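To whoever is covering the structure queue this week,

Two jobs came back overnight. Logging them here so there's a record in the thread.

Job A:
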Amino acid sequence: MGRILDLIVDLATALIVARMLAGAVKGFFRSGPSRFTSHTTAAPPREEQRTATAGETVRDPVCGMFVSTELSHSLRWHGTVLHFCSEECLERYRKSASA
């Protein structure tokens, strides 16, 4: 009777250890924020995120990159507003248009 009781205790202990290991492995490989990341850098407030991504996107006429109309460098040219990804592209356009 003592051997059966020892066997049951050993089996219960093995099951508990197996479940703990499975939970640890599952937690290690799950997606999402890591528990090792620093929490010192805060995400921008929701309103700032909406401002940065809101608006229409258009193609820069110089380099072809898509840029938000709210964040771009813009130029009114012959009644049309052109949007550029950077000051460099804007200047390149001005030089080529004046030549």
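Job B:
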Amino acid sequence: MGFITDTMSENDKRNYIRQSSDNLFVEAGAGAGKTTFISKRIINQMKKGVSPSEFVFITFTNEATVELYTKIEKNIIREMKKTESLEDLSVLTTALEKLPEMNIMTIYRFCYGLLVLAKKARGIKESDFVGSEGMNRGNRVITERTRKLLTENEEFLENIRKKYKHIYADEFQDTDEEQAAVMLLIAGEGTDVKKDNAELAKLLSGQKSEYRIRDNAVFFVGDGRQSIYRDEGAKIEIFENVRKYMSENPNSAIVSLEENYRSEDEILGWINRHFEQYFDNYVDMKGDWKINDPQSFHGIWKVKEKNENDAAETIGLIKKLLDDEKIYIEEKNSDTTRRLIYSDFLVLLMREENIGKYLEEAEKLGIPAITTGKISIETNENAVRIMTLKKAKGLAGNIVIIADRSLSRKEYFDRIGEEENCSEWERFEYVAATRARHALLFMPEETENTMFSAKDYQINALPVLSI
């Protein structure tokens, strides 16, 4: 039976993640500080002699690639400054020099590299998948062809296993079968590839499997509550089946993290109360900060009912909040307060075709607005971010506005071709709510049965924001 760390304290779990040589499956909810504990684990393995070139880290987007590389680099430098061991300092110095050799990339870029190496990339151009989207139905031929390559060429697979000894994957809940198969094939230790592939198919379908992964070969991290790419091929069942397999594997461990370093207590309490009724075995997230100044802008609000032009009303609300001298936020873990700025706002839409309307309204009022996510953080660009929920996944905003509530549950499931009893809708709502740090605002509904319209959310009972 794999080791499940439920009896550990949160601090012990994080220390275990950093120091352990087990294969790990980490369930990390929104705001869990994934990039930090991942980078610390990688640095610890480098201290033990692992070369950066032996890592493959599969990220969900190209933006996440930049973020992880930067975080690892900063943490190495931080470790170098505080270490008193000349031996550790030498290892860290070498790791920093060789850091560019680390393979941090999306699954498509990684698979494309394998196909090029094996001279099997005919008909595929790298320019076809350079976008930032983590899932793309059209790119699935790349992973399908890569799995076929690995299962038909034993010598090539063995060489790849020797080259890439540690397989990390972020956002594992949004993985499809072919992507998971590629990673697990490289992490395997069997010598009969046909048998391995058959056992792997059993594993991924949830059946009892004899598939074996090497010691200290995989590190998967994700949150089943945030799986929202079913329409593009991702299957929450893959996440669940790999978790089940690793929980039964003696060289693996399951770690569930509960702390949320993002949302203030009022938001977190509301999220826990409402989502525990929608997800089986829901574990409450525990916050690490509470607003000290009750007059600062925070918590959950509904916007006064008007519902004439959601784009104009949403952007108009942002301008009013920015212009109101009485509105301010309290910095986390500090008595410092400040007025709002443009980049505090993250506006979430369900319909991509409506983004232009919100950008037009922002331009009318002279408010800088962008539709990208992490770029605004990396460049400190002071602009309101307006984007679809899918593109906002992995991001956070001090003030999150749930706007464009014009898509009904039925229309959404008609679009993705799924039955309405699929829990994808609730996962969408969970992702939306967990983006907020200081305040979560709901614009009025534009249609029935739209996001957060269930009576259980008690939106009508929220305080009204009318300025």
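Note for Job B: The chain has two domains: 3-257, 265-465.

Please reply-all if you pick these up so we don't duplicate work.
Q.
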